[in-house]
Write a structure and sequence with these properties.
cyclic-guanylate-specific phosphodiesterase activity, binds ligand C2E, globular, alpha/beta, single chain, binds magnesium ion, 48% helix
């Protein structure tokens, strides 16, 4: 097949494949190294209550800077970790670090916030997952309500028994369940209403293309339906004032995006919480 597209292309095609798999193998090897050395960091991105405009939660986002490869984005290494048996180790580290940091904020008597943690469906497949999360929360003297777990629909839609068991049990114990990247997959709201989901996170592709197509109408319909199902709605990717105006008019509950702050080290969040007067959290200067 590749031969028919001409010599030059054939050459390029085979070379780039070889290069790709070599790079991939190197990445997996470095990732193993990073897992062994816990060479990760957590950044936190503000989540703003649209009524009070206070910072009410942060999303924990994992960061990895390899000594040889430099910065590798989670969009790149999380799927690799899932394929190569490393996501549990990384996921456990993330949960532990997020809980530890939240406890630090709590004991500093700052305005109280929640922390949202991204969970891979592979983690939810583990029979002991709920028990371990509860033990972790207890160890850091946190309530289940302090933690939001962000899941994507891909892992949920298959309806695996163990995944469902964990999901229901976590929800029953008081952990908030958020469905991440909503709108990018195939699930309908009518399917989701049967699952214990508290929060719908609308994928940022809807917000970023707001003015271009029917996304505004779709967004408005999603928010209305989510509310009628008793869910809160978070918009991710809120980048400018026009996004904010639209989402406010549509009654979106929570906002996340560069307009309010990029993912940043814990100290930046501490500083913001220290300076936050109720109701005065404003978009950060550009
Ligand atoms: P996500 O959970 O949907 O996280 C939101 C992503 O959107 C983050 O990318 C964030 O930096 C980015 N973002 C936030 N606001 C804006 C905005 O206004 N404009 C634009 N253009 N982007 C914005 P990030 O940190 O690169 O993470 C990418 C994905 O990697 C996450 O998507 C999540 O699926 C995954 N991920 C990150 N950390 C973890 C983790 O600890 N565990 C797991 N399982 N997955 C993680
Ligand atoms: Mg997320
Ligand atoms: Mg998301
Ligand atoms: Mg997303």
């Amino acid at each position: 097949q590749a031969k028919t597209s001409g010599k030059g292309n054939y050459q390029f095609f085979s070379k780039s494949l070889a290069t790709q798999s070599l790079q991939q193998a190197r990445l997996v090897q470095r990732l193993h190294h990073a897992v062994e050395n816990q060479a990760f960091e957590l950044f936190y991105q503000p989540i703003i209550d649209n009524h009070s405009r206070d910072l009410v939660a942060v999303e924990a986002l994992v960061r990895w800077t390899d000594t040889e490869l430099g910065v590798v984005s989670p969009g790149q290494f999380i799927p690799l970790a899932e394929k190569n048996g490393m996501i549990e180790a990384i996921g456990n580290w993330v949960l532990e670090e997020a809980a530890r940091q939240l406890q630090t904020w709590k004991s500093a008597a700052l305005p109280s916030i929640k922390v949202a943690v991204n969970i891979s469906s592979i983690q939810l497949q583990q029979p002991g997952f709920t028990r371990r999360v509860m033990a972790l929360l207890a160890r850091y003297q946190l309530a289940p309500q302090d933690l939001y777990l962000e899941l994507t629909e891909t892992g949920l839609i298959q309806g695996q028994e163990q995944v469902m068991e964990n999901l229901y049990e976590l929800h029953r114990r008081g952990t908030r369940i958020a469905l991440d990247d909503f709108g990018t997959g195939y699930s309908s709201l009518s399917y989701l209403q049967n699952l214990p989901i508290d929060i719908l996170k609308i994928d940022r592709s809807f917000i970023i293309n707001l003015q271009e197509s029917n996304n505004g109408l779709i967004l408005s319909a999603i928010i209305t339906m989510a509310h009628s199902l008793g869910m809160q709605v978070v918009a991710e990717g809120v980048e400018d004032q026009s996004h904010l105006d639209f989402l406010t008019a549509e009654g979106c509950d929570l906002l996340q995006g560069y307009l309010f702050g990029r993912p940043s080290p814990a100290n930046d969040i501490t500083a913001r919480l220290t300076n936050q007067h109720p109701g005065t959290f404003r978009p950060s200067p550009a």
